[in-house]
Amino acid sequence: MSGIIMNVYLVAAVVVIALTGAAMAAILAVLWRKLREDESMKREFASIIAHKFRTPLTHIKWSADNLIMSETDPYSKRSLADIKESNEKLIKLTGTLLELTDSDDAAVSSYKFERLDICSLARTAVEASRKALHEKNLFLSINCAEPEIFVRADRSRMEFVLAALLDNACLYSPPGRDVSVAVSAEGSDAAISVTDNGIGMAPADISRVFTKFFRSKEAKAADSEGFGVSLYLAQSVARRHGGKIRAESEGSGKGSTFSVVLPRVN
Question: Which of 48, 58, 208, 231, CA to CA, is 20 to 30 A from 94?
């Protein structure tokens, strides 16, 4: 969110200078403070941004599909496929952002629940994130405690949740560290845990980390452009599956573990 905040301040400064009026500066300050304080305005802001993203992202998808079909050079074809994959992730994120304005019942009605092997789901997420972690020189491993553990879930949305946790680990881990994914059964539940050796969290921040637009001072220092919404969105999706995400850390600089916990099914 800080990148957007900075841009708004810059635009406000230009307007104030152009109009050379203390009154205008005061008006802009009040409007910005209201935006930061009013949750309904934040929600509306997210909805507007998501709607504005949807059309150009769809056009990019169509163009990428057409170019991939006509391209013969293997390297160019691979690059176009990467563009398409990244674009599809943004389309999924846009859809999830739009769900912020829906009630839980309305959002869940669009979910396509199916019986899924959570180990297979985790492996797919790991492979999708492996390139990004490799580029940062992070070592990624996965361990499934049992061959098959089943849950009832919407595949696309759970892939979004796991991607958010893996992106979080990648973003806040210094190069050369380990990131591990573990799948296990916890009584009547199943859990996918993503553990990193990154910036960690202060005890006071753990209870706030899933709050919309919250970012710790350590997170802001590591990534000044973050929005503070990915973990909030991931938690919302998990809860709409009848599950949750829990956060654990021994403190600042001591890494973190985020675990997606979902009800098991036979």
Answer: 208
